[in-house]
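Repro:
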Amino acid sequence: MSIHFGPGDPASLAHPIAVSFAGELVDELVTTLALADDAPFTFSRADFAFGEFKLALPLGVVSLGANRYVIKDMGHVHVAAGVRRDAGDVGFRDETLQLDEGVTWVFHVFEGTAEDAVELARAINSEREVVR
């Protein structure tokens, strides 16, 4: 899915943009670890001290509940995922976009196993040629 954000409000210097994906509130949060991104890694939401935390998502994948994942296409968007301990939704937000800029973010929502989600995320974000 592609989401386009146009230039912002002339009354501000920069304009925040955000998108959120609905998820289930389950304790297990599946993503990958930096330098070990060839396999899924499971965090417990209870392990985090803060009510809201950010995940860098080195491969761009994070779970939205049982067997459902969002994968950011890092050729188009590379901001951290916002996750809360008390909610299943996963959000992405950027407050640095300049007033006269627009941007298109690309995400993939995938249903399947954690291993298949990681394999797809690798195909999207680390096994392709950059052609820009």
